[in-house]
Amino acid sequence: MSQSVLSLKNVTIYQEGKSILTEVNLEVKHGEFLYIIGKTGSGKSSLMKTLYADLPLTEGEGSVVEFNLATLKEDDIPFLRRKIGIVFQDFKLLPDRSVNDNMFFVLKATGWTNNAEMQNKIDEVLAKVGMRDFGKKMPHQLSGGEQQRVAIARALLNDPELILADEPTGNLDPQTSGEVLEVLKSINANGKTIIMATHDYALLMKFPSKTLKCEDAKIFEVVQRTV
Q1: Which residue in 3, 44, 103, 126 has the fewest CB atoms around it within 10 Å?
Q2: How much is the pTM?
Q3: Averaged pLDDT, 167-178
Q4: Could you give the CA distance from residue 182 to residue 187 in angstroms, rounded to a whole number?
Q5: How many domains does the chain contain in total?
Q6: Is residue 154 part of a domain?
Q7: Is residue 8 part of a domain?
Q8: Is residue 21 part of a domain?
Q9: For the segment 73-110, what is each residue's pLDDT rounded down to a tens digit?
Q10: CB-hemisphere CA count at 13 Å for 97?
Q11: How far is the C-alpha of 150 from the C-alpha of 95, rounded, in Å?
Q12: 59 within a domain of the structure (yes/no)
């Protein structure tokens, strides 16, 4: 397998016909933890959406987990997303289903059929985020931090090569944000590649890592102390 999980060359990213980021050149190696920072509207989420094919790549070259974004067909998008775990700011848990049933829903949708194997996988990923005893709880019975842990566990179900976390601490208080970052860092320490969009500079200071900034329609690496 290539050492690169993600490569963008001379990419322009468009949202509703307007260019948001231009001349994007980015390579992410397996096992890296990368922050993407920038003001609201600077292009962080548009970049993330391009990586999981919610926005089409129409200009430049791009590959993610060995899928060519420029030539990607609509039928291929589900297969791309099975190799990517996505964590959102607002958790996106199904409110009328228990934690376990949220997990079963994803596994069944991605081709799993054996109930025992599915339950074993669910127990495994919930244990990784410290939520194994919460499987029978409903989302409304969980705190925001607990819901985000479940969302991270859900992103791990299909053993993705890349995890995209789009403002995963945006709705959480500082202490809970730190706990969620510790979970993500531990997952990264076990070999998972993680790209995290955030505007929480305090987290960058507490958990420093390679950082890119979106500003003035460009994306560039920043030295930690200048963030």
Answers
A1: 3
A2: 0.92
A3: 92
A4: 9
A5: 1
A6: yes
A7: no
A8: no
A9: 999 998 998 899 999 988 999 999 999 999 999 999 88
A10: 12
A11: 13
A12: no
